[in-house]
């Protein structure tokens, strides 16, 4: 098995979350990534998660929380808690919903609390967009700092708008940098 330093376990109901996982992975240059669809987990996927330096959780926000399919993955992964197998791994999260607010914060809080219980080190979003930085239109348009929030595009041919995709790429770069810094002390 090729080791991935960043694993992205996600659930995607209609493809939006998968698209975000791909964008985050593309931004994590210099770090192997492995997106993992949690509805089709293999033994190799579990091994990759256990060996990863970072785990970036992703799920759509449905009715104010993470989707049930993603919650099932979290429950299955919790058997790693007693041995603290994921302790000191870098963790982050991303979500998408139909509405600008869409109660996405509660989904990110669910992921962050889970990571804390697993002894992980949480990395939040650090991109500042408009209106504070007019040169960053569309970047972090939801003003989320706990993790990546995106709003699904009504255009089903693209699923996620360009600003949210660029924010996701930048988030991937931030996570990759945090992994490097955490592992190398620089």
Topology overview:
Layout: E1 6-10, H1 16-27, E2 33-37, H2 43-51, E3 54-62, E4 65-66, H3 68-77, E5 90-97, H4 104-117, E6 121-122, E7 148-151, H5 162-184
Parallel strand pairs: 1-2, 1-3, 3-5, 5-6, 5-7
Antiparallel strand pairs: 3-4
Highlighted features:
186 residues; alpha/beta; 7-stranded mixed β-sheet; 37% helix; globular
Description:
The protein has 186 residues and is of the alpha/beta class. The protein is 37% helix and 19% strand. It contains five helices and seven strands. It has helices at 16-27, 43-51, 68-77, 104-117, 162-184; strands at 6-10, 33-37, 54-62, 65-66, 90-97, 121-122, 148-151. Strands 1, 2, 3, 4, 5, 6 and 7 form a seven-stranded mixed sheet that branches. Helix 1 (16-27) packs across helix 5. The protein is globular, with a radius of gyration of 15 Å. The model has no long low-confidence stretch (mean pLDDT 94).
Instruction: Report low-confidence residues grouped into runs of 5 or more.
Output: none
Content-based structural category: alpha/beta
Order of helices and strands: EHEHEEHEHEEH
Separate helix tally:
5
| Dominant shape | globular
Radius of gyration: 15 Å
Cα distance, first to last residue?
Answer: 28 Å
Helix content: 25-40%
Instruction: Report mean pLDDT, rounded to a whole number.
Output: 94
Main beta sheet: 7 strands, mixed
Number of strands: 7
> Which strand-content bin applies to the residues?
15-25%
Q: Gist?
A:
By secondary structure, the chain is an alpha/beta fold.
């Amino acid at each position: 098995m090729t080791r991935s330093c960043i694993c992205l376990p996600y659930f995607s109901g209609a493809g939006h979350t998968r698209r975000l996982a791909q964008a985050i992975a593309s931004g994590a240059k210099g770090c192997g990534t492995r997106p993992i669809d949690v509805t089709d987990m293999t033994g190799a996927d579990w091994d990759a998660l256990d060996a990863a330096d970072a785990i970036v959780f992703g799920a759509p926000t449905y009715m104010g929380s993470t989707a049930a399919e993603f919650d099932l993955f979290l429950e299955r992964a919790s058997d790693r808690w007693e041995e603290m197998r994921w302790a000191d791994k870098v963790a982050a999260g991303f979500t998408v919903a139909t509405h600008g607010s869409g109660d996405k914060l509660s989904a990110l809080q669910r992921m962050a609390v889970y990571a804390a219980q697993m002894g992980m080190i949480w990395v939040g979003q650090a991109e500042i967009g408009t209106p504070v930085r007019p040169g960053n239109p569309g970047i972090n348009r939801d003003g989320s700092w706990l993790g990546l929030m995106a709003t699904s595009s009504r255009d089903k041919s693209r699923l996620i708008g360009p600003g949210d995709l660029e924010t996701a790429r930048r988030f991937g770069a931030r996570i990759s940098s945090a992994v490097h810094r955490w592992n190398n002390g620089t």
